Amino acid sequence: MKIVRLVAIFLVFLFISCSKDNPERVRIVIWHQKPPGEREILEQAVKRYMEHHPNVKVIVLYKETEELRSAYIISAIAGKGPDIVYGPSDQVGPFELLQIIRPLEEIFDTSFLNQFDHRGLLWYKGHLYQIGDQIGNHLFLLYNKELVKKPPQTMSELIKIGKELTKDFDGDGKIDQYGLVWNYTEPFFFIPFLTGFGGWVMDSAGNPTLNTEATVQALKFVRDLRDKYKIIPRECDYNTADALFKEGRAGMLINGPWSIGGYKKAGVKFGITRIPKVEATGLWPAPMVSIKGYLINVNVDEKKLPYVLDLFKYLVSAEVQLELTKSLGTIPTHKKALENEIVISDSLVQSSIWQAEVGRPMPVVPELRAIWDAMRPYYQAVLGGTMTPEEAAIKMQQLAVKKIEEMNE
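Above: the chain sequence. Below: its structure as tokens.
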């Protein structure tokens, strides 16, 4: 009995010891701002990775975009922070300025980098700082197939279809169904119209280019969609537009790849196409196109770096990227994934790629934040009826110049 008791005690001790984390395991921390659908795929990928690498413990922490940006800056400057950061490409500029992200061409060989579409590699000031797991983050036109049989190819067609679909079914004076909805009060969602009329936010040196005829005409056009053609709601933020489309109360919607999973889940029968061409200029609206992807903290020490690189390679692999595409309709950056039947046979993904082909790369310079902040109040003033488009274009430019000067002091 004494021997049996000793064996039992030994087995209990062994079980407790094995159940604890091995103190020799390498600990890798990832901060990200992935939305729910992407978040689940990341967590599943990390779980699979750890099953095959029992000596590695990966901790995945979600943070809102702005929280992630500020917290990472503070921690990295102090020599700490996560090992890997995931987010949109526009955070590269501020991080590079502070020298808190590592140039990737110094640690990944050419054969590895050549596996990716060039659009998935973010080079800035002569260095590669980010590898994307998806191309896009861009806007396109979604249409409800039960309401729109043939999607518009021009803005005139969009207005015509929009008028036919905007209806007050019960005669109470309130619109029950809209032709078009989108988060039109935010500058990012204004960009396709600005580019459709031939404008852009900055020149090659990062100087704002907002006081132009293109800006004026684009502001007038968006305002006319609401006030003259009456095909969009009087007020419409992101959540309102999203809900109306999910409920089948909007024929068309301007949104991005991040929204596809939600509309599939809601059971909406929808298609994707380019935002219609502006006849006055002959231009397709060009949304900002960027990548979302991974960066490496400059503070990762040399002993830990090989483990971080191995995990990094797995997270941007064709296997993981195709999981994103299957679930959410994202555009992969890995060439093998782009050539996979999952991508080729998905009409939604192919339509998203078609829109991205006429998009413009989102600037990653820090000045873009100042430009967004300068555009917003005057853009919204035009929509609020307190300022003309001509006045707004002048004010946007003046405030953007001022904010950039203050930022560079």
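Residues 389-407 form the longest helix (19 residues).
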